[in-house]
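step=encode ok
step=design start
structure_in=
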């Protein structure tokens, strides 16, 4: 099938390549990008045969709203827009309503996989009407990891981004647990090789995981994380998860604590946040701050 893809950053560029490897045609656009296939949204839309599917991988908020607004003027009835960025789930209903007024479908899709997704595949959580999801299904199949798992039609519009938000909240708590354990091991005089302790956990333990593998990878690069400053940003989804928990009266003590630990990293150089920063860099290519 043909797909228009808006946004060719760390995720979008690799997603374009994976979809092409599956035999589909992708017309990619990003402003001021040398890797773009076309030079404007209009040119991208004109290059696609109707009915069209256009996938967005742009920053949440005003940037996504701007692209949705422009596509609403360029697309035709029967076309479908997929928001694959990290938009807040509450924005999805508005985007779906705005596009539905012009008979354009809307699907929201949470995407996880970071810089490793090109080779390993991307975990996908999508929400929307079955009719619109089915139109995008060949792209979902191209992006997901091999096997039965890795993709889910999570529910109605907003369900995909809500599921991805909760996923990221869990990710916050898991990274925080690894970071706290690493700092305690580093502080104990009796433990002389923290990196190898982490490595020993990769087989036969209940905490073995991809995050643990990435922690070992980060320690192989910088055994005591001395080149990193203990600063870790938050993308917003951790905050949204905690806010949703309050709205639904669901207790999230671990996730909430991990979010506030991120805030503490901005007040002083936190050893735990060195590990969190290293993990975010490993799985998502997120920027890190040098200790110097």
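sequence_out=
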């Amino acid at each position: 099938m043909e797909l228009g893809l808006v946004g060719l950053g760390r995720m979008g560029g690799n997603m374009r390549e994976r979809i092409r490897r599956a035999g589909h045609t992708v017309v990619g656009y990003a402003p001021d990008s040398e890797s773009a296939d076309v030079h404007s949204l209009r040119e991208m839309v004109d290059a696609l045969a109707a009915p069209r599917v256009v996938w967005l991988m742009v920053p949440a908020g005003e940037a996504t709203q701007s692209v949705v607004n422009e596509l609403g003027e360029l697309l035709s009835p029967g076309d479908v827009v997929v928001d694959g960025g990290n938009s807040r789930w509450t924005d999805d209903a508005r985007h779906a309503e705005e596009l539905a007024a012009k008979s354009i479908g809307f699907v929201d899709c949470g995407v996880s996989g970071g810089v490793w997704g090109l080779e390993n595949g991307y975990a996908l959580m999508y929400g929307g009407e079955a009719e619109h999801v089915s139109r995008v299904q060949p792209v979902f199949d191209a992006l997901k990891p091999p096997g039965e798992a890795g993709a889910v039609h999570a529910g109605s519009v907003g369900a995909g981004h809500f599921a991805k938000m909760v996923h990221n909240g869990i990710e916050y708590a898991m990274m925080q647990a690894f970071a706290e354990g690493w700092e305690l091991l580093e502080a104990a005089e009796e433990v002389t090789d923290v990196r190898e302790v982490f490595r020993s956990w990769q087989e036969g333990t209940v905490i073995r995981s991809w995050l643990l593998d990435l922690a070992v990878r980060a320690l192989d690069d910088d055994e005591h994380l001395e080149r990193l400053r203990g600063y870790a940003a938050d993308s917003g989804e951790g905050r949204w998860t905690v806010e949703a928990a309050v709205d639904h009266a669901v207790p999230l003590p671990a996730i909430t604590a991990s979010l506030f630990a991120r805030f503490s990293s901005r007040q002083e150089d936190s050893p735990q946040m060195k590990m969190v920063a290293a993990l975010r860099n490993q799985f998502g290519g997120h920027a890190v701050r040098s200790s110097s």
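step=design ok
step=annotate ok -> The beta strands are 2-6, 25-29, 53-56, 80-83, 105-112, 123-127, 151-155.
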